[in-house]
Amino acid sequence: MREKIDLHCHTNISDGALSPEQIVSRAIGYGLSHLAITDHDTVGAYDRACVQAQGSDLTVIPGIEISTTFNSVQIHIVGLFLDTKNQKLLDLIKRQRVQREERAALIGHKLEKLGFKDALLKTQAMAGDNAVITRGNYARYLFSTGLFATQDEAFNKYLKKGGRAYVNTQWISVEEACSIIVHSGGVAVLAHPKRYTMTNSKLRLLIEHFKEAGGMALEVSSSQQSPADRDYLASLCERYEMYGSVGSDFHSEGPWRDLGLNLKLPEKVKPVWTLPQAQAFGF
User: Fold this and answer.
1) Which domains does the chain have, with CATH numbers?
2) Could you tell me if 24 and 35 are in contact, meaning their C-beta atoms sit under 8 angstroms apart?
3) Mean pLDDT score, 224-243
4) Which one, out of 94, 154, 195, 230, has a CA that is 20 to 30 A from the CA of 262?
């Protein structure tokens, strides 16, 4: 079932396959009412997406997905309803981009040693001049070589933690990410909480830390998520008195992952779009 609100997706300004214009057109075609573009450590797609949405019934929500580190685990924090021109946010984006460029070069060097000639240059060519190069971009390049059955297979073999081309990166803290999102007028959302490799007890510690840092919501419903995981996250929203968000984390077409798909929020969860920060966007 397709819902009308999707608050987590990516364009080719980071590691998505579609341009901002294409993803907005896709959302309009599906009849969505609200779409947040949350590219990795950049808000570069927002203005273009708003132009494309003009004259339609779709409202584009300003968003971002910020990489952080918590207890040596990479954690993604989504910022919604924020001011994309806020100077502290823009300064953070510059810092994160430099770090991503350094990591991309190191990954490219490792892949070169593994026989993938000009891996960084080819990945950049596929991604485009404005893209922030992520591991997802490298996975798309590796898949294009024809050596892997799926993009996930390429990612798991070479790019995930423990993979042959993995580069460990110390991102900013959860506290700093939440602080800058709040300073930008936005709401901090813990992205896809059940995707992290951690026990439920460690996940609860993360959520407690996230809330203390200023986080207000959990991404409760996402594509390719089991009903059991959704219900567990809904119970955590109740336990910690947090709001719930929904997001497909759409990057490109794939089985059971598309804009608005399987994003129903359980009735007992308070929607993140009922917060005051969301009211300027027609909810």
Assistant:
1) 5-84+172-281 (3.20.20.140), 94-159 (1.10.150)
2) yes
3) 96
4) 154
Instruction: Tell me the β-bridge partners of 64.
Output: 79
Q: How far apart are CA 53 and CA 226, in angstroms?
A: 32
Distance CA 142, CA 155 (A): 8
Coil/strand/helix, residue 205:
helix
The strand ranges marked E within 50-204 are: 59-70, 73-80, 172-173, 187-190
Q: What are phi and psi of 36, to 5 degrees?
A: -100, 125
What pLDDT does residue 168 have? 92
Dihedral over Cα of 99, 105, 106, 111: its sign? positive
Given a cut of 90, is residue 1 above it in pLDDT?
no
Task: List, in order, residues 6 or more apart from 141 with CB less than 8 Å away.
Answer: 119, 122, 123, 126
- Say if residue 227's pLDDT is above 80: yes
Helix/strand/coil for 277: helix
| Rounded average pLDDT over 166-186 | 97
Q: Round to whole Å and give the CA distance between 46 and 38.
A: 9
Q: How many CB atoms lie within 10 A of CB 170?
A: 10
pLDDT in tens, 119-158: 999 999 998 877 778 999 999 999 999 999 999 999 999 9
Any residues with CB less than 8 A from the CB of 76 and at least 6 apart, and which?
65, 66, 67, 68, 191, 192
Phi, psi at residue 262, to the nearest 5°? 55, 45
CA torsion sign for 186, 32, 207, 71 is negative
- Predicted confidence band at 224 (pLDDT cuts at 50, 70, 90)? confident
Closest to 246 in 3D by CA, of 29, 12, 36, 30: 36
Task: Please tell me the predicted confidence (pLDDT) of residue 120.
Answer: 94
Per DSSP, the three-state class of 281 is: helix
